[in-house]
């Protein structure tokens, strides 16, 4: 990891929770004047720097901020154990952070894979979460809404087989991926693969085969904003509409940005969407 970038977080305090399977790191700043705490969850193969700019703005407005390096990413534990890279395990890691920080009112802000972890946490634990900001987030395996779900077993076993070939792969150090500095799909993919063992990346992709909140998402009654880019190849407008209809207090915002990488390519718009959401529901949060 590039130590020259280690202080980029500025005013955020670097912390970790000790889990049964390694340390999970996060960066935090406490709330002021009784405001809620925003817990930011990044996407696959990124890290907390996805949210660094937005987090600083929210902290400057007095909100508590927690920027998480999910297991397998950033500073957090990267041990080679496939059962550790599931949505329930990520939710358990998140719960330990929320309990350690004694967060009573939490707004989960999740991007892509991180949004799915936010859904898993909210449905499983429910406590403390008072709001959701879900960006480029699926509620079900993306192949379902593309009407090619029959390919799911093929894709899953392909990823598992390829992961076996990379099981040996470790790096002495990992590139410290600063999300806002990488542009373009393939550069993003390559940059992401430099941040973590390839086998872990593939194990996490296989978990999309089991993603299905269609029967449980209706349990979520807290204020929620659903954010999706135009023409997202992984998230259709039909799925976003169905999520809104299934949830009890949700609305949709579509920023004027193409593709899946909304959190990277439209950071100023995302920042505004989050702050407008917090203001819209300030009496409920």
Annotation keywords:
single chain; eight-stranded mixed beta sheet; 8 strands; disordered N terminus; 10 helices; alpha/beta; 285 residues
Quick description:
This protein is of the alpha/beta class. It has helices at residues 52-60, 87-100, 113-124, 142-145, 152-165, 185-193, 198-206, 237-246, 262-265, 267-280; strands spanning 13-19, 22-29, 37-41, 64-68, 106-111, 129-135, 224-227, 250-253. The longest helix is centred in the N-terminal third of the chain and has 14 residues, at 87-100.
Walk me through the structure.
The chain has 285 residues and is α/β, with parallel strands linked by helices. It has ten helices and eight strands. The protein has an eight-stranded mixed β-sheet with strand order 1-2-4-3-5-6-7-8, with helices on both faces. β3, α1 and β4 form a beta-alpha-beta unit. α1 packs parallel to α10 and α5 packs antiparallel against α7. The N terminus is likely disordered.
Instruction: Determine the strand fraction and express it as a percent band.
Output: 15-25%
Q: Low-confidence segments, ≥5 residues, pLDDT <50?
A: 1-7
Mean pLDDT: 90
What overall geometry do the principal axes of the alpha carbons give?
A: globular
For the biggest β-sheet, the strand order reads 1-2-4-3-5-6-7-8
- Portion of residues within helices: 25-40%
Structural category is alpha/beta
Distance between the termini: 37 Å
Strand segment tally: 8
User: Main sheet, how many strands, which sense, barrel?
Assistant: 8 strands, mixed
Question: Tally the helices: what do you get?
Answer: 10
The radius of gyration over CA amounts to 18 Å
Quaternary state reads single chain
Order of helices and strands: EEEHEHEHEHHHHEHEHH
